[in-house]
User: Fold this.
Amino acid sequence: MSGNANQGDRRPNTHRKGSTKVIRRFTLLLGLSLTGFTASAASKLNVVTSIEDLAALAREVGGDRITVEALARGYQDPHFVEAKPSFILKLQRADLLVMVGLQLEIGWLPPLINQSRNAKVQPGGSGYLDVSSACTILEIPTGPVTRAMGDVHPFGNPHYWLDPDNGQRIAKAIEQKLAQLDPAGAAYYAQRGADFDRRLAEAEKRWVARMAPYRGRKVITYHRSWPNFAAHFGLAVVDYVEPKPGIPPTPSHTLDLINTMKRENIKLILVEPYFDFRTPNSIAQKTGGEVVVLLPSVGGVKQVQDYFQLFDYDIELLVKAFAKAR
Amino acid sequence: MRRFVFALAMSWAAPLLLRAQDNAELLNRIQAMEERIRALESEVQALKGQPAPAPVPPPAPASAAAASKIFNPDIAVIGNFLSAAGQGAGRGAPALEMKESEASFQAIIDPYARADFFLSFGERGVDLEEGYLTFTALPGRLQLRAGKMRAAFGKVNTFHSHVLPWVDRPLVTQNLLAGEEGLSDAGLSVSRILPAPKNVFLEATAQVFRGDTEGVFRSWRRSDVAAIGHLRGYRDITESTNLDLGFSYARGHSPEGPHLINQLYGLDAALRWKPLRRAIYHSFITRSELVWGRAQQPFQVARPFGYYVASDYQLARRWFLGGRFDRSTRLTDSALQDTGGSVILTFWPSEFSQIRGQFRHTSYGERLRANELLLQFQFSIGAHGAHPF
Assistant:
């Protein structure tokens, strides 16, 4: 890249009717960009969800009448998903976008929606579904909210899908939306919805029974991902590895945590798979506790592919860990 | 219904009457009956057309005060404080400066469009950095934008200062693409996602601007508009790695004379890596942009060229280490070439603030050398913006 100082040709300049040329080129570009309509020919409803849990629930209700795809993977932090253009392609073709809301996806979903060029999935569009409005939401701040509290969610904790009751409500909301978008399939969705409710109610009884011996047990979690899960299964979340939501662990807070765990004889630290295990491991070492990598989402590990397997997996892990911690 | 009640009664009475029988078998039968009852009940309910138990009503949208502000746009302010030390060769930044404060106002206008405003406050004046209307629901999968905006020329030109991985902009931007302001003008932009092989994102953007960009284009007459075209191709290589390529073209009238034309050609490429399981801790991006120009002058044509290559590695959740090499001739004098190199260390106390140090060495074409240490504080208040990509 040495200085290729080219002084240019010295021919005199003539006015080249620049503006006409510019307009012609612009028209050409515009024409090019207009050509070639992408066919949205699929007969099945095309559902895109922000996280895999919502995809799993949509699959339960939608069955063969829909195709479902999640943007974020179950093993990644749903707050920090990248707004990749490949996701724009998925949203462009979507008939329905299902999201968690409560600002969980605020860093990445809005720009994807803006660029999707799909009227259906714009806020207020026929295919825009924020399922938080159907669910029981915990930790809604009552006083003034500032970021001194960390990356706080002003409308409540967005990890609400980890309560089977909310799972049922989400499935219902998706069922109603699918019936609205595809009235011919309404009976099909209703039947599948009822079947899902029945199976979920059965499984829920089993899960509650498994957890019953450990009701009231105190635990530490890394992030505030588990209030709904803890409320449903009777766990008491005493403190968090993060000093404040979204703020990485600090030495002083970690020390407090160790003291709390020793004082209150807390043995389990529940960590989402996408966080660094170093701090939780060192806390566990100093307190004789155990780190449990609990999955907040379907797809967190290969064998967890649906909403039932998610709770089966997590509850089995917890039961084993509690049993071990006597 | 009476039959079910009877069955239910029987299912409970049975164990009392038949104590001798195997308990496990009885339990199984009870469970089977319970299931049947539940299934029948749900059938009855469906036949009656009764809705399932209503979901819990949604929570009230915060307080009444918040509700009254519900249609206000999302507002955020980003501050950019810069301090510089060392030998700047007469071109560097002042020792201490509140360089820019960007205020953004963003909202949906109606079911068809949204608006985005970015006002940039310097220490002395206010400037409309961007302000545009975007039609989000056009037929034909088109997106139309009208207003003042940063031109879709390359990648860095579209970035606001606070999302740059550096304190400054590279030499090629300073010399060929109108510096800090960048190619930015009032105009119309239309873009469309083009049909492409599976999993390839191909986007074409065509823009027409008034034709006024300081130092690069000037609109001498109303018809002296500037045109910009951009083609972007993107592909996920794996779930953690992706490649972004772009080609850009810009054309407008030269500030040196109404009959002189300036043209710019750009090539940009970025390779990103971010392992999903550890996405908040580690990432790597390497980026390069090359810009060629053809600048007509009264008696000659200058053919400037410039480029930069930069990489950023995320060492830990809050630490980023970066490097950049850049070189560029001047727009109207290809004989003068500036070369620079930088090392950058960035610390993010939280998602909403960052502290950055940059050591920058520059050799200017006039045989001037600069060695500078730049320190920057950036901080954001208000609405949570989108994460840059």
Notes: The two ends of chain B are 61 Å apart (CA to CA).
